[in-house]
Amino acid sequence: VAVASSSSYSGTVLVAGATGGVGQIVCARLLQQKNCKVKALVRDASRASEILGTDPSMEFVVADLRDANSLLESGATEGINAVISCLGTTAFPSARWKDDNGPENTDFVAVRNLVNATKKTAPDLSRFVLVSSVGVERTNQMPFIILNAFGVLKYKKMGEDEVKNSGLPYTLLRPGRLTDGPYTSYDLNTLLKATSGTRRAVQVGVGDTLLPEATSRIIVAEAAVQCLTLPCTLGGAYELGSTEGEGPREDPKEWTVLFESASASSS
Fold it and tell me: In angstroms, rounded to a whole number, what is the distance separating the alpha carbons of residues 262 and 267?
């Protein structure tokens, strides 16, 4: 069973979207923790090893999340203690939408399949952290009307609802426009060196009311990792923004203050 401490997570964490801009930082941060193992859910193990490098505590699991049977047969969700889902695609048609990789399959179908497989095969789950987006509850307001023109926010909200209604212990994170990365040519050690000196002041809100100009991928990844061990974030939906300035970095006490303050101000 996974054990939470004040600063590190013990257990096996499945990272979906592991080769993406947020996912690669999540993997790097988890591998810094002494008793943490990572299952990186990928479609192509050789490409993943080019992006993430190799580590004795990291296993690549190949599956297509759009295919529920493929996911179950891969065994990806067996023996895990937590999930961090960093799945996502572009808001507007792009090369990333090729081969049925648009918002519906990426932000809804894949998340639904991941939730269902986790429910079936991971009885000891301590947390399911879903990285979603700011604006999912404001698709009738600007600028989110434009952002949602092709349904990305609609499908992200549908993915969120799958997580919320699953009965699994969850936390939802809703960042703004992502900055810092992706670091496509770094292995994990280089990545940590590239990002470790960067301080970012963090804005945390509850629900969907903030309008952050941008959110650092470093902050999103750190928030996701911190949520694994912070009881105060259980069952919460948090908006994330970041600016230049002094931030919490990897300090769980500072993150606790940020999350608890946001919850208090919204009640």
Answer: 9
Backbone conformation region of residue 180, classed left if phi is above 0, alpha if psi is from -120 to 50, else beta: left
Q: How far apart are CA 254 and CA 61, in angstroms?
A: 34
Which regions of the chain does DSSP assign to beta strands (E)? Answer: 3-4, 9-16, 36-42, 58-62, 82-85, 127-131, 170-175, 178-179, 200-206, 215-216, 237-244
Q: For 67-109, what is each residue's pLDDT tens digit?
A: 999 999 999 999 999 999 999 998 888 888 888 888 999 999 9
Q: Which residues pair with 14 in a beta bridge?
A: 39, 83
Bridging pattern class, strands 3-4 and 9-16: antiparallel
Q: How many CB atoms lie within 10 A of CB 59?
A: 15
Helices 252-266 and 217-227, packing angle to 10 deg: 90
Cβ atoms of 28 and 192 closer than 8 Å: yes
Task: Tell me the β-bridge partners of 40.
Answer: 15, 60
Global confidence as pTM: 0.93
Q: What average pLDDT does range 104-115 have in this prediction?
A: 97
Residues 79, 125 contacting (CB under 8 angstroms): no
Residues 6+ apart with CB under 8 A from 63: 41, 43, 70, 71, 73, 74, 76
Three-class DSSP category at 29: helix
Residue 184 pLDDT level (bands cut at 50, 70, 90): low
Alpha carbon distance 93, 102 (integer Å): 8
**Beta-carbon neighbour count of residue 233 at 10 Å?**
26
